[in-house]
From TrEMBL, chain A:
This is DNA-directed RNA polymerase sigma-70 factor. Residues 105-115 have a biased composition (Acidic residues). It comes from Actinoallomurus iriomotensis. GO terms for biological process: DNA-templated transcription initiation. Keywords: DNA-directed RNA polymerase, Sigma factor, Transcription, Transcription regulation.
TrEMBL record, chain B:
Residues 96-173 are annotated as: Disordered. Keywords: Membrane, Transmembrane, Transmembrane helix. Residues 98-112 have a biased composition (Basic and acidic residues). This is Uncharacterized protein. It comes from Actinoallomurus iriomotensis.
Amino acid sequence: MPSHATGAQGADTVLRAALDGDEDAFRVLYRQIHPRLLRYVRTLVGDDAEDVTSEAWLHIARDLATFDGDINGFRGWTATIARHRALDHLRHRKRRPVSQTPVDELPEQTAPEDTETTALDSLSTEAALAFIARLPHDQAEIIILRVVVGLDAKAVAKILGKRPGAVRTAAHRGLRRLEQLIHDLELPR
Amino acid sequence: MNDPGLDLDTAERMIRGEPTGPPRLARLLAAASALPETVRAEGEQAALAAYRAARADRRGRRRRRVPALISVKAALIGLLLLLTGGVAMAATAHHLARSPEDKRSHHARTPDTSKTFLTHEGPKRFVRRTAKRSTPRPAHAHSQPTQAQKNKPHPGNTPKGKAKGNAQKAPTG
């Protein structure tokens, strides 16, 4: 997560400006955060991720005046909103949330075999996400929130209603499993 | 699972982006979190429109709130002026009636004809008023200062001070 750690002060300044009404600052925030939220929402709702994430941004923009905190807090806040929108979306579609679906019942959302084959040539973002999507859902969600959205274990624990220790353990298991997948698929070193 | 190097601590450091652990796994995590070159314009425009609308809405609400506050304040001030003004007017009238300075100033402006009455009737304040009317009517002289007070601003600052004090309290209350 070095990309999140570096320039945190600059990101805080941008956030402050966006909260004060600077539209360009809000645009910068959007461009930084939206792609990460979109990847997170995709782990929850699959193909509807674009629509659900757009809806989440409407809520973020509307409630922005109520937010008070730094850029890390803002990432957690936006992820919480995105998660609520995703779970609402799943409820409206009268589907069980993906997180409560047993792993073997999960639809093949983002990990078709050809994506993984492509991954052997060049490790694109899509390919990397396809690997992560093969993990048990709780591990995939935690790894996306920590690595992609850029949250610490405490923030993830708050969003998911778990203990930080449980989040760390799940992330550890997820990484070990990922490493195994890489080994099995002979991803080039 | 067969990588003994990936313990809990190493996993935690990899998640934080530190250059450690199995290189292929590190590359995978870096690729997963890499930002794209561009984002979809429609999504960005919709988010910006919502941002603008939310700000305009908040500004609108602030504008609507201000006149409401002002009118409440004005009503309070008016009510206080009404309530305290009457008391102050009566008090001032009383004060005027008894004030020696007042007596002197009116005496100075009194036409020469009044001097006749002064010498004859004694109490100056009665004489002044009756002199103006050109008919000596000492029995009605008590009402004269009150009548005069109605036609000029209050010399006393009681109502003004009270109204100001309440105006300052109005927004918070």
